Amino acid sequence: xxxxxxxxxxxxxxxxxxxxxxxxAANKVRHLHHHAFRCRSAEETRAFYEGLLGFxxxxxxxxxxxxxxxxxxxxxxxxxxxxxxxxxxxxxxPSHFKADDFPEVDQFGHHIxxxxxxxxxxxxxxxxxxxxxxxxxxxxxxxxxxxxxxYDPNGMRVELATNVSxxxxxxxxxxxxxxxxxxxxxxxxxxxYGAAAxx
Length: 199
Description:
The protein contains six helices and eight strands. The protein is an alpha/beta fold and 199 residues long. The chain starts with 12 loop residues before the first helix and ends with a helix. The mean pLDDT is 90.
């Protein structure tokens, strides 16, 4: 992703903020409660998220019954809290997940992106901490944000991002052009991948 298909406008950012506030107020889904993923081991996952990244483990729930089958198959549901009160959650469920269920999923297939506060210094600190721990880190400057990507022990692709000076204007402008951008993508998609892909 880049700023390649963006021409900055002269939109009044105060007006853009009011539009965004109205749009958000109309949405009854307030914020992410939690994002759940599988895990190989509660202990390994805790060591990574709480120990390495500093996300506090706020709940470790032992569930005795599988809610889909009503069978007595215990599992654990972990919640690691983020700064806004939402959480990354994980299921340690040995009778449900097998070793083959933990491939590293590429970032286009699935990833979770979280915004950090503290800007570039925070991104640099996490990058250093992860690399010292032997975690491979990919850094991408998208133009409208700067991100690092890495895998957790469960194969989930994780992104930490910081906004930059043009972030607010970029998204204000992109909101104004969403319909035109979708039409342009449809044509570009068909050109590159054929008519069947455009359906």
